[in-house]
From TrEMBL:
Residues 36-71, 73-115 form the TNFR-Cys domain. It holds the Pfam family TNFR_c6. It comes from the Eukaryota. The chain crosses the membrane at residues 212-233. The keyword Electron transport does not apply. TNFR-Cys repeats lie at residues 36-71, 73-115. This is TNFR-Cys domain-containing protein. Disulfide bonds join C50-C63, C53-C71, C74-C89. Keywords: Disulfide bond, Membrane, Signal, Transmembrane, Transmembrane helix. One of its GO terms (molecular function) is transmembrane signaling receptor activity. SUPFAM superfamilies: TNF receptor-like. GO terms for cellular component: CD40 receptor complex; external side of plasma membrane. Residues 1-36 form the signal peptide.
């Protein structure tokens, strides 16, 4: 064994190096414990542990060995929501209308703005538990589905397919209607229903014999109707002619005759001296009318 070697065969310089490393590690751990600040303190720029400012304020002047931390309130549009050693307050979040955001709660000195989505949109990405950062448009339920939960500012629309035998023809339907039962209507199904449209019903087709049985009575009834109309028209014409002749005879019987009074003309002779002596002469002197009876 070489002289100067410690028991165990390790050289002396290795043992001395090991001792130095252990000493340095111990000193480092001691100084870290000495340099750490309490929960209510913060490490200032000059290395001191200074008291934190309360929520709603910030550090205006770090502490010294002879003075405490100098704090000032946050200015308008800024905030701090916890005790801090910040030289500046945080800026309040802006709710961008172009991103379909609206202000739900205004910003104060101690809390940030709370943003929410406008109607018709829901929050698809949150900045934190309280405020929204990105909005997405509510999904529109298509025909063939029914809405089970309308969209809100936090959740999208929820909808499910219509069950077999039912349909919804409109978007955003909250119910599915049953297909029409053609048998109950006395009809046959022309087109089957599906999830977005009702079935189509129609009347059953007639064979040739059924058509004959249907059309012959119709034709006969039509002819009888025409004949009946002609008979009625002719009968009315005859009655009209008879009535006209009777009225003419009645008019002839009712002719009024104007009576003419008879006149009795009498000639009264008057004697006058004739230029021829010995010959009588007569002339009508007057007419006397006498009404008879």
């Amino acid at each position: 064994m070489a002289s100067g070697s410690p028991p165990g065969g390790f050289p002396a310089w290795i043992m001395r190096l090991n001792t130095v490393c252990i000493f340095l590690a111990t000193q480092l751990l001691f100084h870290q414990g000495a340099l750490s600040c309490q929960a209510w303190e913060y490490r200032s720029s000059n290395g001191e542990c200074c008291p934190k400012c309360t929520a709603g304020s910030r550090v205006a002047k770090p502490c010294t060995t002879s003075s405490s931390t100098g704090c000032v309130p946050c200015s308008e549009g800024t905030y701090t929501d916890h005790p801090n050693g910040l030289p500046e307050c945080f800026r309040c979040q802006l709710c961008d209308p172009g991103a379909h955001l609206k202000v739900k709660e205004e910003c104060t000195y101690t809390k940030n703005t709370v943003c929410a989505c406008v109607p018709g949109y829901f929050c698809s990405h949150r900045r934190n538990e309280r405020t929204c950062e990105i909005c997405a448009k509510h999904t529109v339920s298509p025909p063939g589905y029914k809405v089970i939960q309308a969209g809100t500012e936090t959740n999208d629309t929820e909808f499910v397919p219509c069950p077999l035998g039912t349909f919804s023809a409109m978007e955003m339907s909250f119910s599915c209607e049953p297909w029409t039962d053609c048998n109950k209507e006395g009809l046959i199904e022309v087109c089957s229903g599906n999830a977005s449209s009702d079935g189509v019903c129609g009347r059953p087709k007639l064979d040739k014999r059924s058509r004959v049985y249907l059309y012959v009575p119709l034709v006969v009834c039509s002819l009888l109707s025409v004949l009946l109309c002609l008979v009625i028209i002719r009968s009315r014409g005859q009655q009209s002619n008879k009535k006209g002749a009777a009225e003419e005879q009645k008019e002839e019987r009712n002719v009024d005759y104007i009576p003419v009074q008879e006149r009795n003309v009498m000639v009264i002779p008057m004697q006058e001296t004739s230029p021829n002596h010995g010959e009588p002469s007569y002339r009508t002197f007057a007419l006397v009318d006498q009404a008879l009876g």
